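Backbone-to-sequence.
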């Protein structure tokens, strides 16, 4: 099976290292050289960007997550069975999908005709993430989704709850929430700083936010 791993936290981030470890499949890695969180589906078109071959299977890219997928397509271009993006440090729920570099990499892969999954780990308060637990949850999800490809023009968006037992959460297929983020800012003169609290987001019953905030694994099919 031919797999590509991408993320938006950077090639050395624990989330992508966890994916490599727990999926149990050999994969090629094209990931940003540093953090690119919140870049959405931006791509670099008006200036050059560099890439560095770290090893036979690992490339760091001085670009966005979507750039990484595009760079693979140009430099290697071999057909892929799946593209995995993540595991993101922080949830990508509801309209986060429009802001997320993690989701953008999966979306770009879908545009290019490859099956894709975006993985994200919700953070609860100041609690530390146990990446061993996250990895085991990713393995559980992969065992289900590997034989259940998304529909044409869609990718899977997976969010893990912040839990200590990888076997406790249920896998729940659900719809992404369409509720907007709170419009809350702190104003200092002509400066605005966003002050919305992620944990206080509105939760439509049965939505991905509701599922993940309730301690289960949300799996949503996201169409282009």
């Amino acid at each position: 099976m031919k797999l590509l791993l991408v993320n938006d936290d950077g090639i050395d981030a624990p989330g992508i290292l966890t994916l490599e470890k727990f999926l149990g499949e050999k994969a090629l890695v094209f990931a940003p050289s540093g953090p690119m969180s919140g870049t959405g589906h931006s791509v670099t078109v008006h200036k050059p960007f560099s890439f560095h071959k770290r090893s036979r299977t690992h490339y760091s890219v001085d670009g966005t997550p979507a750039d990484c997928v595009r760079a693979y397509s140009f430099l290697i271009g071999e057909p892929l069975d799946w593209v995995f993006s993540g595991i993101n440090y922080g949830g990508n729920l509801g309209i986060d999908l429009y802001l997320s570099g993690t989701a953008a990499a999966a979306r770009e892969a879908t545009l290019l005709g490859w099956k894709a999954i975006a993985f994200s780990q919700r953070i609860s308060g100041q609690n530390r993430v146990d990446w061993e637990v996250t990895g085991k949850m990713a393995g559980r999800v992969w065992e289900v989704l590997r034989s259940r490809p998304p529909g044409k023009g869609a990718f899977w968006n997976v969010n893990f709850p912040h839990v200590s037992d990888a076997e406790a959460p249920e896998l729940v297929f659900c719809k992404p929430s369409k509720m907007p983020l709170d419009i809350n800012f702190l104003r200092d003169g002509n400066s605005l700083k966003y002050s919305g609290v992620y944990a206080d987001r509105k939760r439509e019953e049965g939505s991905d936010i509701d599922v993940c905030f309730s301690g289960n694994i949300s799996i949503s099919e996201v169409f282009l």
